[in-house]
Write a structure and sequence with these properties.
It contains four helices and 31 strands. It has about 475 residues and is of the alpha+beta class. The structure holds 2-acetamido-2-deoxy-beta-D-glucopyranose (3 copies). The site of one 2-acetamido-2-deoxy-beta-D-glucopyranose (NAG) has 6 residues, from loops.
């Protein structure tokens, strides 16, 4: 059995040593760590040795089956080499280390030594500019193979999403966006074998967020602005000059003011803290250390309408800006929220500006069976004659696809018609008039009676009235 295994090894070894003429090719950049892993047979007792260039050159490292290891004392190699089993590891590879490496295994069990050759080929990867990029900056990436090879390797760049991008002679150029932040890869293909060389591209940009936000006095307000935290870490140590929020107010149905008010500025000393410039009751997000620069408030206010600008100014003068427009949804009741039974009422649900075409409006009348509205989606509702069923809370919501953006509420109260009051007034005044008439009539009669008595008194003024017969004589 043992002899069978041994002879199999010998066969493999013979095959390998004759076929192993083809180099194993490794592409590497200066500074990378390269591990050369040979695949020799596995005889019991053996001795392995690594050479550079040719077998006559001094060795780089060696190992034996008893666990002994040595590393070259050559100053050009010593610091960079180590042995892991049979494998040779070159850490932080330098210019002088590119070339051919020969692995040789000798064993009394093998008829002839086993050889395997490796070739480490230098790949130059450069990124211009090498520093942090801002959106719209131009990026150029080159990936070139340092030596002439019989079969020219093909070179292809992959972007941060792993998609192939135009590459000509190892060169790729483009203008970056936030999406380009991440690991790009140069893929070198030689002899149908791919090798990937990663490059880290840093683009400072805000995380994707809606540029339009809606709020109302009955819903919350959040103004998003955040930077991916891994980029933020670098930005903090980078040359930031200023981070601030500005507000450009907008009147209802009016244009956005050009005069900005500074709301907050970030104090860049550790720990990062916001300094409040204008108090609008907005609170910065607590996790500013992770690059979250957002502002929030529990409830919106009518004067929140306007544009909010979050900006980062770099020492070179470049500015990274994000503008969020805030619209405040309101329900306007005309002539008012208190109405008389039977009156005409118009309810408008509006932000003061036309809604984008993908934003839908939806009305929710008070939950009463008697209330029905013709159109739940029009901005204006006209109720020709309000009934008592129309009193209560009317809600209007804004929707975008399946997301509720905000909602506004108005409370209508309906009072009994003033007709009744008028009737009361008329009845009362009629009563008063009747009473007055009666009083007047009575007093007139009284007076007349009194005058009659008075007249009679005047006709007979004597103390002892004469008998009637007095006049006849
Ligand atoms: C050390 O290694 C370098 C590079 O391989 C070689 O050129 C040089 O001759 C070696 N020096 C000695 C003393 O072997
Ligand atoms: C930033 O903070 C706000 C408020 O605390 C939060 O709603 C939001 O999800 C945060 N954003 C990120 C990207 O963490
Ligand atoms: C309601 O709207 C209609 C038509 O738009 C208008 O004629 C009417 O005067 C409005 N009524 C009130 C009370 O605003």
């Amino acid at each position: 059995m043992k002899s069978l295994i041994q002879s199999t090894f010998i066969l493999i070894a013979v095959l390998a040593s004759t076929m192993g003429a083809e180099d194993v090719i490794r592409f590497a950049q200066v500074g990378e760590t390269v591990k050369l892993v040979p695949q020799p047979p596995n005889p019991q007792r053996h001795y392995v040795i690594w050479h550079f260039h040719d077998l006559n050159s001094p060795y780089l490292g060696s190992a034996n089956s008893f666990g002994g290891k040595t590393i070259s004392e050559n100053e050009s190699w010593k610091k960079w080499l180590s042995m892991e089993g049979y494998s040779l590891v070159i850490s932080n590879i330098q210019e002088a280390h590119f070339g051919k490496f020969i692995f040789k295994m000798t064993s009394s069990d093998l008829q002839s030594p086993f050889f395997q050759t490796f070739r480490i080929i230098k790949v130059d990867v450069t990124m211009k500019p090498p520093s942090l990029l801002l959106p719209e900056d131009s990026l150029s990436l080159t990936c070139t193979v340092g030596v002439q090879m019989p079969n020219k390797p093909s070179i292809q760049w992959l972007n941060a999403q792993g998609q192939k991008v135009t590459t000509r002679n190892g060169l790729h150029t483009s203008r970056v966006t936030g999406q380009d932040n991440g690991q790009w890869t140069c893929v070198v293909t030689s002899n149908n074998k791919e090798q990937k060389i990663p490059v880290s591209v840093k683009v400072a940009d805000f995380s994707p967020a809606p540029s339009h936000k809606y709020t109302s006095t009955s819903s919350s307000l959040s103004i998003p602005c955040s930077i991916l935290s891994n980029i933020w870490e670098q930005l903090k140590t980078k040359d930031i000059e200023e981070v601030k929020w500005d507000f450009f107010p907008q009147a209802f149905s009016g244009p956005v003011s050009r005069d900005g008010q500074k709301l907050f500025s970030l104090s860049l000393e550790d720990p990062l803290t916001w300094k409040k410039d204008q108090n609008r009751g907005l609170s910065p997000a607590p996790d500013v250390k992770n690059g979250n620069l957002s502002l929030t408030r529990i409830r919106g206010k009518e004067n929140d309408r306007g544009s909010y600008e979050c900006s980062i100014k770099f020492k070179g003068g470049k500015i990274l800006k994000r503008t969020v427009h805030v619209d405040v949804l309101q329900i306007i009741a005309s002539p008012g929220t208190e109405m008389i039974l039977g009156q005409m009422v118009n309810l408008s649900c509006t932000t003061g500006s036309p809604l984008p075409s993908d934003v839908q409006l939806k009305w929710f009348p008070p939950e009463k069976p008697s209330v029905s509205i013709p159109d739940h989606h029009s901005a204006r509702l006209t109720i020709p004659e309000v009934g008592s069923g129309h009193s209560g809370k009317w809600r209007c919501e804004l929707w975008q696809s399946n997301i509720r953006l905000t909602s506004a509420v108005v409370k209508l109260s309906i009072v009994e018609p003033k007709m009744n009051v008028w009737m009361v007034v008329i009845i009362c005044s009629t009563a008063v008039i009747i009473i007055l008439l009666v009083v007047v009539a009575v007093s007139i009669r009284r007076r007349r009676q009194r005058r009659m008595r008075h007249l009679r008194h005047q006709v007979c003024q004597c103390k002892n009235p004469k008998p009637k017969g007095f006049y006849r004589t």
